[in-house]
Design a protein that fits this description.
Blueprint (H helix, E strand, L loop, with lengths): L26 E2 L6 E2 L39 E3 L9 E7 L9 E6 L5 E5 L1
Antiparallel strand pairs: 1-2, 3-4, 4-5, 5-6
């Protein structure tokens, strides 16, 4: 008995939403387990748009000629690097220990890329 037969994409027997149509084979209703041919989707239209990324050769991964702040792995702070003496380092924080303890702060020198950590 087809009570719900007027809506494409819905089961004609129980009214549940049918799963997407596959490349081959019939459609099985998840609710009432009946099998239907692809005609249950007749009249249904689908639309999609494909967005492509634009190619910009000036944004390639070349880091030559960029200022120090663009090479940072995070926010930049005034902190002296123990290896080269540079006064600017970037930092990132992670919660590595239990929640009732402080975060671990990872510092990276912008000049020599030396890394050090500090438990706060």
């Amino acid at each position: 008995m087809d009570v719900f037969n007027n809506r494409p994409g819905f089961c004609p027997t129980c009214g549940s939403i049918l799963p997407p149509l596959q490349v081959k084979g019939n459609v099985f209703c998840y609710n009432c387990k009946q099998e239907f041919v692809a005609d249950v989707y007749s009249g249904e239209k689908s639309e999609y748009t494909i967005q492509f990324n634009t190619y910009d050769p000036s944004k390639l991964l070349s880091r030559k000629g960029k200022p120090e702040s663009e090479e940072a792995d995070g926010p930049v702070v005034e902190r002296k690097c123990p290896k080269c003496g540079n006064d600017k380092m970037s930092y990132a924080t992670l919660q590595l220990r239990s929640a009732d303890e402080g975060q671990t702060v990872f510092f990276t020198c912008l000049k020599c890329k030396f890394k050090e950590s500090e438990n706060s």
